Amino acid sequence: TDLAALAHGLPKAELHLHLEGTLEPELKFALAERNGIELAETTVEQVRATYDFTDLTSFLAVYYPAMQVLQTADDFHDLAWAYLQKAASQGVVHAEMFFDPQAHTSRGVPFSEVIGGYRRAIVRAERELGVSGELILCFLRDFSAEYAMATLMEALAYKPWILGVGLDSDERGNPPEKFAAVFARARQEGFLLTMHCDIDQVGSIDNIRTVLTGIAVDRIDHGTNIVEDPSLVALAIEKGIGFTTCPVSNSFVTEQMKADEIVQLLRAGAKVTVNSDDPAYFGGYVGDNYAALAAQASLSAADLVQLARNSFEASWLTPARRDAYL
Ligand code: ADE
Ligand code: ZN
């Protein structure tokens, strides 16, 4: 339909994308072969058959082991380059991309290989696709605060290549306050801050309150549960906090897109955005997410234009570059 074409064609920023979540089965096989790794599956269909997620935990149980094929800077480059080309084909002109260094350093891959490869893809995308890219370092919240702090210290050598820090992985038992000192230090070092407040978590409204009022993040990833507390919605709007929602991903981890919550935030005037999260696993890149939400919630063309506009307003582009897109 025309709306689906608009969903894919509108120039937009992507703000919630895990680079490791863009590993398509075809590339996984190619990297396994290059690195001499034996995989349990031998066909793309067998790999996709394992994508039978019922919640965040069952997704993460597939997501982390797949990363064993990522070993050298070339591998990380190829992963990010494939994503950036795909994103460009769905209207992305700017991408602020999460990466999970501890998913690699914890298995012996040097931080320098990870960020070196990703950076090379970003420079190439700017030159060859006209797409700008930035990196957001995510700490894995199921590891210790000490490991997160050590990772932050290691990242300081690459400050010009890292725009901000985030927090992902399993939220259960790993609340934001566990990382308060790490995020305070990151802020001191000049990084922007965001955190996942996942949508399938009982009690996540308390975590949303903590990240807004205690940690004082600049953005919230997912966070649609905030509609449970209208006073927090009002606070987020007053602070100009962006929400990076991921409808297709939501439909895997909770069996619904959370379309009502997303639209409620949109109508209230919050800076709510639509993103793809882990597109290789959930089967939808960012344009597909705009289209899926539009179909589910009967959005208008004007709504899609507003969502794309929000993606720049909630981005961490400099004001001059952001305004050029508005
Ligand atoms: N890591 C990769 N994708 C994630 C998600 N959707 N939630 C939490 N951690 C993640
Ligand atoms: Zn995410």
Automatic annotation (TrEMBL):
It comes from the Bacteria. Belongs to the metallo-dependent hydrolases superfamily. Adenosine and AMP deaminases family. Adenine deaminase type 2 subfamily. GO terms for molecular function: adenine deaminase activity; zinc ion binding. Binds 1 zinc ion per subunit. Zn(2+) binds at residues 16, 18, 196, 277. It catalyses: adenine + H2O + H(+) = hypoxanthine + NH4(+). Its EC number is 3.5.4.2. This is Adenine deaminase. The keyword ATP-binding does not apply. It is an enzyme of class 3 (hydrolase). Keywords: Hydrolase, Metal-binding, Nucleotide metabolism, Zinc. Its cofactor is Zn(2+). It holds the Pfam family A_deaminase. Substrate binds at residue 278. The record marks 222 as: Important for catalytic activity. GO terms for biological process: adenine catabolic process; hypoxanthine salvage; nucleotide metabolic process. Residues 11-326 form the Adenosine deaminase domain. Catalyzes the hydrolytic deamination of adenine to hypoxanthine. Plays an important role in the purine salvage pathway and in nitrogen catabolism. One of its GO terms (cellular component) is cytosol. InterPro entries: A_deaminase_dom (IPR001365), ADE (IPR028892), Ado/ade_deaminase (IPR006330), Metal_Hydrolase (IPR032466).
